[in-house]
Amino acid sequence: MTTVITKMITRICLPLVILFSISLLLAGHNNPGGGFIGGVMFASIVALSYVVYGLEEIKKSFSPDWGKWFGFGLVLAACTGFAALPFGHNFFRSAVEILDIPLIGEIEMVSAALFDIGVYFVVIGSLLSIFQMVGEDK
Amino acid sequence: MSSLNHHYPILLIAIPILVAALTIMLRSRPKLQTGLSVLASFSVVLISSLLLMKVWNSGIQVYEVGEWGKYGIILVADLLSASIVVLSSGVSFLSLIYSLDYIKKRSLSTYHPLFNLLVAGLHGSFLTGDIFNLFVFFEVLLLSSCGLVVALEKDGITKSSDKLEATFKYLILNILGAALMLIAVASLYATTGTLNMADISVKLSAMQAAGTLPWHVFAIGLLFIVVFGNKAAIFPLHYWLPDVHPTAPSPISAMLSGVLIKVGVYGMLRIFFFVFRDVLGMFQPIIIILALFTIGIGAASAVAQTDVKRLLAYSSVSQIGYVFLGIGFGSLGAIAASLVYMFNHAIAKSLLFLTSGGIIHHAGTRDMNKMGGMVNSSPFMAVAFLIGAMSIAGLPPMGGFISKFVLFDAGIIGKYYTEIAIALLFAIFSMFYMFRAWLLMFWGEKRDVKAYGEYSEHGSSPLVYLPIVFLAFMVLALGVYSEPLLSLAQATAAQILDPQAYIEAVLTRVVR
Question: In chain B, where are the structural domains located?
Answer without folding.
Answer: 4-507
